Amino acid sequence: MGLEEDALDYHSDDPPGKIEIRTTKPTNTQRDLSLAYSPGVAGPCREIATNADDAYRYTAKENLVGVVSNGSAVLGLGDIGAQASKPVMEGKGVLFKRFADIDVFDVELDLEDPDAFVDAVAAMEPTFGGVNLEDIAAPECFRIEERLRERMDVPVFHDDQHGTAIISGAALLNAVELVEKDLSDLEVTFAGAGAAAVATARFFVSLGIDRANITMCDIDGILTTERAEAGDLNPYNREFASDRSGEELADAMVDADVFVGLSAGGIVSQEMVRSMADDPILFAMANPDPEIGYERAKAARDDTVIMATGRSDYPNQVNNVLGFPFIFRGALDVRARQVNEAMKVAAAEALADLARRDVPDAVRKAYGDQPLQFGPEYIIPKPLDPRVLFEVAPAVAGAAMETGAARTDIDLEAYVERLEARLGKSREMMRIVLNKAQNEPQRLALAEGDHEKIVRAAFQIADRGIADPVLIGDEDEIGSIVEELGLEFDPDVADPTTGSYDRYVETLYDDRKRKGVTRTEAEEMIRESNYFASAMVESGDADAMLTGLTHHYPSALRPPLQVIGTAEDADYAAGVYLLAFKNRVIFVADATVNQNPDEAVLAEVTKHTAALARRFNVEPRAALLSYSDFGSVDNDGTRKPRRAAELLSEDPAVDFPVDGEMQADTAVVEDMLTDTYEFSDLEEPANVLVFPNLEAGNICYKLLQRLGGAEAIGPMLVGMDKPVHVLQRDDEVTDIVNLAAVATVDAQRR
Known about the structure:
The protein is α/β, with parallel strands linked by helices. Helices cover 44% and strands 12% of the residues. Residues 161-401 form the Malic enzyme NAD-binding domain.
């Protein structure tokens, strides 16, 4: 089947379309319904009647955008009418929700008259926190947006104009930096004089381009003052009419520094590219075929050609989804009255800044493991980069507050944490630990320091003030990786193969001499990074360590267990995962270390896991799991968790609720605990789940992660004498940074 047939099936599968409405409050009982509707709903109605701004408090208005169109200029389809445009508007709603957790009502108005359209949209102001205008023909779109901005007290944003302007503006900021030119000196040529072109030209002026240096062309050639006087231009594009000599686009491109294409495919030749100034910048954004193909533009010259298109199959895609979800997110969260020029500039600058940073592994994987790194092939972030939300929305909100467009002021630092919570509970939990780590960074040994991921993680760890990383590995190799990645980073490196580390040899020898290790063998072993890092921590030269990225878990764990060992009050280490669901978190133990623990080990693991939960500001409630509920089955297997629960209940040092043995659903379903087993010591569902053996724990966490939609943090190693955490072999840089924060907080506690 072709793409169109697949798309038809996609949209027609039951239920048809791409969106639906879900309730956000309980509706399970008669009382729930009386609160949601009559008679309880009268309360918020009265409050809003007294104070209209209370609509933001009592309704979904603060997170609701209207995507409004008359279908008069649908991309690639033209004037197809309001009804036919509905799939596009639903799709816009999907993007709002997916990237910024914004709810959308799509509104298709069968109105060609601009005045009637404006009246209809303005009348809907009580419904929406903002309005996104979409696919409206020029020049009417200019007048419609201007009038709605004047009449409405919520943000009105025509994405076809400003989205392209903002994203290409971000690309321009980075391209100019790479070719070392000044914005104010640039000669810019536009192919296209419609809504997107005019809005982009205006925005480039806001960024610092001299309006006199902009030459705009349409299908009839250069927009000149002579054509304006003859009435050949509309009131909006005539502001870019010039006295430039020449008639055609080819003339306008001679000696131009920047070409911006928002017109038609294939209209630019290689000869026209060769006529441009040194190190030209080309944004050929016509879709689906750009004004000149990527390869042809790059091959036209020997100097640097920075090229962007509207296509996803080439570098530097100018994609509006990088803008509108996050701009509206920031505007909604300060209850902005408009999206002004300062807010748009802030969005472009935030995007430009983000493109200069190291790209997360998850983003690289999403784009086929492309080598995404700031340079001519990467001047704009990718839409699937989750950091866009945390950079653009706060920048927009901050600009709204600074310019008086905001109805309410917010703490931007706390706001970032709220945004992270929108993308998942795991981000909210990690933010707690990251904040703690940044309050008192510790010295962290990274055992596999000459691996690219570890170097990138170390840079982020140091840059964000999480810890003071020490890279264990070949100093020359680490230096080469830093240079290749273009990181501004002078890492602290310890090379086990050079220099004298007699003290570490003695530490290792003292620990292992009665385990069959000679001094000579200790000298050899210390050159292995895991033993080196373990001895470094044991000697007090580092406060914590990470290892395991290039080793199987057991082999990575062995050196720290041999050299550092378990804590004084612990006989066993254990591996714990934090699993984050939408509205709850649970800690799963043991998932990586103890194959068949007895009741004493289970009790010890429970205490260690409870202590770990408290580092995430979670008050532990522990359940010892089995396939039996409180003696319903009696055999050696069910007695083990039962006795572990009894040991914990009898321990005066245990200051958290614990019970067992119980089945997994009993532990996590409140009704079962409070109704069926009202005698349980757990008054609320458990958040620490201790499994009877490694097999059960490992199977469970993987099923919950893959089928239950849980986000996993870990494994986190508990029970060690000093902080040690063992990575998984496929961990990404983000995972390494997160475990570094956990290790730092662990070290602070000690």
